[in-house]
Amino acid sequence: MIREQNGKGDNDFARIKNKKAEEMEERRRLMEKSVEKKRQLRQQHIERKETLEAEKLQRAETATDRKVRQLKRRQRLAEELARRKHIELQESLKSRKIKSASARGMSDEVFEKIQAEVMEKKTQDQQIQTSSPWDVSEDFELKQQQKKLSYQRDLQNQLIDNRRRLREKEEEKHRERKIMEEVGETLHEENSEAEKRKTEVATLLQAEKDAFLKARQFWKEKRREVLRQEHDEIARIIAKREALQKREAEGKIDTQAAKDIMLEKMMSKLMEEERKRVEREEICRELYLAEKEHERASEAIKEASRKKHTARELLQEMARTQMAVAERKAKERAIDAAFTKYLADEQKKQEEKERLKERTRREKVAQYGDELREIIEQNKMRRSKDTAQTKGEANVGHDEKCKIKCHSEPENLEKLTSQVVKNDLCV
């Protein structure tokens, strides 16, 4: 009887032992499944992190390319501004050279004009020798007409220069307006690109936020499912354990109960550690996303401030260029006014000299006419005296003597006239 009871007890112990082994195997499979799920979640997290890093690298490359394009565009604009400034400086130097050359040319023309007038006066004096001294008024009117024509030509040249300067001013205004339009288009494009980048960053942040929320919701659901399964498993194990304890109450299997309690504590500890680890990973991910969002916002703010600074520098450069152009125009206008005043003063001086010379010449001609009349009167008086002295002579001798005197009198008159003309030319 005792032997049968011992055999029955051994069978029960073996059965319980097998059941415990099966339970341990089941727990091991569950733990492996949980570990596999955690490994899959970790792998998904790693893949997500790698994807985010790749997207970040791509955005950085895109931003770098955009910055390089912006720098190249700014460099092209700076080169274009420098080229246009160089062209404007060359045009201003060329215009100054042309003005100086025209001034020298005009001075040469004035000298040639004066020389031509001197030669013309000499020709007129030679004509006076063979013409009557009372034809001076016609020559004076001719000279006045020539002066009027010369003055009219000078006015026409000044009008042409003024029209040319107006055309140059219009062209310069057109160039400045074109530069301002290009700068405005560049600023508009940069602002559009900045707004587009802001929209893209906001879209990416929203997409990352949505993905993060979806992943967190998925993880929470999976976690709840795992916890529910573990809770059910634990409840089942506890129920089995209670049933086993009831069955083994008589056999007093305290060792197995202690092992179960220890195993339960270990399982609780492992579950708590896993929960804490998952919470730490979640917190680290949230901190990482918050830090990245802050960095993107800081970069966007820095980019906006840098663009504002660049736009301010471009506007200051345009203002300095306009001031330099205005100063150059003011200097050119002052030079033109001074040169015009100089020409007018020279014209007045030349006219005054010509009037003085003309008045002197008229006085000399009048004096010459008076002297000729005096000589003629003296010759008449001398002839009357000679006639009175030779009144008693024969008529033939008287006629011959009168002829000789009449022939000698024109010769003396011609000699006196040539001497007066030579003195006038010397003066």
UniProtKB/TrEMBL annotation:
InterPro entries linked to this entry: MNS1 (IPR026504), TPH_dom (IPR043597)
Chain coiled-coil ranges: 287-363
GO cellular component: nucleus
GO biological process: meiotic cell cycle
Keyword Nucleus (UniProt): yes
Pfam families linked: TPH
Domain named Trichohyalin-plectin-homology: residues: 124-416
Highest taxon in the source lineage: Eukaryota
Subcellular compartments: Cytoplasm, Cytoskeleton, Flagellum axoneme; Nucleus
Region (Disordered): 1-40, 380-399
This protein's UniProt keywords: Cell projection, Cilium, Coiled coil, Cytoplasm, Cytoskeleton, Flagellum, Meiosis, Nucleus
Function statement: Microtubule inner protein (MIP) part of the dynein-decorated doublet microtubules (DMTs) in cilia axoneme, which is required for motile cilia beating. May play a role in the control of meiotic division and germ cell differentiation through regulation of pairing and recombination during meiosis. Required for sperm flagella assembly. May play a role in the assembly and function of the outer dynein arm-docking complex (ODA-DC). ODA-DC mediates outer dynein arms (ODA) binding onto the axonemal doublet microtubules.
Family in the record: Belongs to the MNS1 family.
Record protein name field: Meiosis-specific nuclear structural protein 1
